[in-house]
Design goal:
single chain; 180 residues; alpha+beta; two-stranded antiparallel sheet; globular; OsmC/Ohrsf; OsmC/Ohr_fam; OsmC family protein
């Protein structure tokens, strides 16, 4: 007796969308009151290069360095957090654009790489290097939904243009650091 072969079609399930009416309401509210919003995070060093961070009333999150950089490898390092923040910000923007266009997304994954110059080792190593921090960031977006490829690509480009985190990485801005 021949063994039965089961062929299953891949079923794509839409990602949980954001509500269109909520997006429209938020946009109207922000247009009516265009003030800047101040975000606050408290960072507490717990030893070595490990810190615990507090944002709003959420559970604290850890940022740590790998053992090769004197950390404990318990969480992403600060630069990995920056890449994750960029990816997350792009996800938000792409989802908002999808909702605004009535596009149902079935897949949204973002792959990020950043080349970072660490020769200066936080000002304790080589100090003649002209650029510190990220020297190049590459982002690839794997996206699918009920729109054609051109619409999906336009949403990705638009989200990057209007991403606060992408702008933060791209635009010069003043950073004020002082003691309490």
């Amino acid at each position: 007796m021949a063994e039965a072969t089961t062929v299953s079609a891949e079923v794509t399930v839409p990602l949980t969308p954001i509500p269109q009416d909520g997006l429209t309401e938020l946009a109207a509210k922000n247009k009516a009151n265009p003030a800047d919003k101040t975000l606050k995070v408290k960072t507490v060093c717990t030893g070595k290069f490990r810190s615990v961070n507090y944002a709003r009333d959420l559970d604290p999150f850890v940022i740590d360095e790998p053992p090769v950089l004197l950390g404990d490898n318990t969480a992403p390092n600060p630069s990995e957090i920056v890449l994750g923040a960029l990816g997350s910000c792009l996800v938000v923007g792409i989802q908002a654009n999808a909702a605004a266009k009535g596009v149902s997304l079935t897949k949204l994954e973002i792959f990020l790489e950043g080349d970072i110059n660490i020769v200066s080792t936080w000002g304790t190593g080589e100090l003649e290097k002209p650029q510190i921090g990220f020297t190049d960031v590459r982002v690839k977006v794997d996206i699918d939904g009920d729109a054609d490829k051109a619409v999906l690509e336009e949403m990705v480009t638009h989200a990057n243009t209007w991403s606060p985190v992408s702008a933060t990485l791209s635009n010069p801005m003043p950073v004020s650091v002082s003691t309490v």
